Model the fold of this input.
Amino acid sequence: MQCPFCKKDKSKVVDSRASGLAIRRRRECLECRKRFTTYERIEGEVRLRVIKKDGSRESYDRQKILKGLHLACHKRPVPTEVIERLARDIEEDLLSQFDMEVPSQAIGDMVMKRLGALDQVAYVRFASVYRDFKDASAFVQEVKPMLGGWKAKR
Done:
């Protein structure tokens, strides 16, 4: 395993834990002594097909969910570990709720639900792309319920 800091390939496993569909390993580089986390998962385990809006189908790709989450949470106080956990939880829910095919809308809805509970700005960023708003009024309608809840908490 290559160290993300010094790029050497000598490390030792300090801690290992089961983490849903993966094994989380905490590693320490034997060269620079810095620690980093890796996830080990069975390759090709997820055999879901995603049904896109246009009816086409493609293989499920966890990296697409991660990319969307990272973009939504960019410059927000959301740790990478939380984003990884969200993606893992969404994947586990998909596997438990769908056998072979999942509509892309179901994936987007799961992401939005979790982002709404995690960070309002990340939610709005994701919603603006996912919902493909045609004008500002549609955007305001999406955000209005969240604003009401935010005012009540203050």
About this structure: The chain is about 45% helix and 20% strand.
